[in-house]
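Weekly structure sync - notes
Attendees: PM, LS, DV (DV joined late)
Agenda: review two folding runs queued last week.

Item 1: First target. Sequence and C-alpha cells pasted below for the record.
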Amino acid sequence: MTIKEALESGRLPNVDAVLWVRESIIASGSAAGTRAIDVAAWDGIACRIYPDRGLDVGQAWYGGIPLAWVSRVGESPPLSTLEGMAWGDAFGGGLVTTCGLRNVGMPSEGHGLHGTYSHLPARDVAVTRNVENNGASISVTGTVRDEGPPAFIVRRTIRICAGVGMIQIEDHTVNSGATPEAAPLLYHFNFGYPLWAPPAHLEIPVERTVARDAASEVALGFWHQPPEIAVGPERVLEHDLGDAGEGFARIVNQQVGLSMTLRWNRAALPRLNQWLDPNPGMGVLGVEPANCSTRGRAADRQSGTLPALGPGETRTTRVSLEISPVV
C-alpha cells in the first residue's frame, strides 16, 4: 500500500507519521536564536536545514547512520563580517555548505574566503509535503539575496524523498543587475566518520588529477581512501572528468553497510575539487562540484576561467545525493 493509498483509505490519519517536519528556533549553544528545519522521510534521509545559513544542510542520517562530517565549531550563527579567512570561524561542516556567490577559495579582490552565501538568510521559506501516486517527498524552498551590487537572487529547492535515500538541491541564480558579474559557485559536501573511515573507498571516473600545491601532491596516490590520521597540511585536488555529461562520485563503506552517490549537472558545474584534511579532530573528505577553482577569483580571472552571469541571466544548478545499503 502506498502512502497516498493509506491516506485516502483512512489507514494513515496523519502524514506526519511518514513525512515529519519541525520548524524551530535553536534554544542553546552558539547558534541560539537562529532558525532550523528538521525533516525526516520514512525509509529515507533525515536532516537539519538552516534558513539563516542560506538553506544549507547540516547533519544528516540514513537508517540512523550519520552521513555528514561535523566540525568542532558545530552549529554556528551567520557572521556579519567575512573579511579574509573569517569564514572558517563559523564552518560547522554539515552535509553541504554553499560557497560563492562572488568568490570561492582563497580571499581575493576584496572578497573573503569562500564568499558570503552561507551567511545570508533565506526569505519566504516554505515547507510542503507532497504525496503522489508514484511517491512522497518533503520540499523546502526559499530565496537568498546577495545585495552586491549587482544583486544575485538564488531560489533554492531542497527535496527529501520517502522510500528512497535521496536528497536533491536545485538552485536558480539570477543576476538582477544591469552589468555582468563574476559568479563562482561550489557545493562543499563534507563526509567523515563513520562513512569516511577505513575501509571506505571513493570512486570517481577520473581522467586526470591535479594537486593545488606541493603539499597536496602527496594525496595523488591515495585520494580514493581515508588517509591515516596525522598532523600535516590539508590537501586539495582537482579531478578532470573528461567529457562526462553527468558528474559522479561515490563512497562505499562495506563495514558501515552504505553506498553514497553524489550526482550533479556538469553543464553548470564542470569542475570537481576534493579536500582532504587528515589532522586529528578533522579526518574529513570534501567532495566539491563547482564551476571554478579553489584559488580565488583573481587566479581564475588570470587563467581565463572565471565564471560570470550577464545582466538578467539565470543559472540552474542541480546536485543530488543518493544512499543505498550494501551487503
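Item 2: Second target, run right after the first with the same settings.
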Amino acid sequence: MDVMTRIERALEKALAHASVPGAPRLLGDAMHYAVFPRGARIRSRLCHAVAAACGEDSPAVTDAAAAAIELLHCASLVHDDLPCFDNADTRRGKPSVHVAFGAPIAVLAGDALIVLSFQTIARGAMRAPSRLSPLLHTLGRAGGTPYGISAGQAWESEAEIDLSHYQQAKTGALFSAATVMGACATGHDAEPWRPLGELLGEAYQVADDLRDVVCTPEELGKPIGQDEHHGRPNAVQRLGLDGAIDRLNQLAHDAAASIPDCRGARDLRSHILSETMRLLPKELATRAA
C-alpha cells in the first residue's frame, strides 16, 4: 500500500470515531470537512519517510503517528481561519470551516480534532506501549506552549514578535513533531531527528512566504497577502525575492545534511531535497536552479 493511501485510510478511521450514532452531526461533519479532501499531507508524509528510513517495524504505530500530526495540523488551520484571527473565507479551494458551518462549530471542530489526535495515538500505539509516552509527549509539545502551535498563534497577539520563536512555534513545531514521531514510532532514539524537522519547518515557512507574494488565491486555494494585511513578518520582506529563494535552497541542503545515520539515509536525503524545492512556485523554480 502506498503512503498516501495509508495516510488517508488512517485519517478516515480516526474520523469515524467522531461520527458514531448519538454524536452531534454538525460537529462530525465539520471535522470531516476540515480534513478532507486531502491537502498535500506534507507533515504526515514526512513522518512516514522518517519511519521508513529508520526501518519501520510497526506500521500501525506509524499510521497513527502520521494521522495524529495531520489532525493537529488541520485543527490549526480551522482556528487560524477564524474571524478572530485571519478571518479567511477559503481554505484548500473551498469555503473555510467557519464559513461553511459557522464560527461556534468551527471552534469546536478545531478543539475536537486536537483531542482526536491524542486519541488516535493512544489507540494506535496499544501494541507498542513503550513508544506511547514519547509519542504523546511529542504531540503535546507540538500543540501547546511554549514551543507549539498554540504559542505560535499567540505570538500574533503580542505587541512585539520574536521572529525566531514565532516561526518555530507556528510552523516548525509540527515539522519537528513529524520527524521525531517518525523515529519514535520505530522505537529509535528520536531527538537526533529534531533538527531535521526544525530546518524543514523554516524551509516550508520561507516557501509559504514566497507563495503568498507571487501566487494567486486560485493557485493557493486560500487568500493571499495575509502577512502584509496582518503586519506579520515575511521572508520576502526581510530578504527580498532572490534572498528568500537562496535561503530556501540553503535550508533544504542543511536539512538533508542533518539526517542522522540510518539504513535509509541516502534515499531520505534525496527525497528531502526534491520535495523541499517542489514547494517553490513554478515561476520561481528556474531562479533557484
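Discussion on item 2: The longest strand covers residues 90-91.
Action: LS to circulate a short write-up before next sync.
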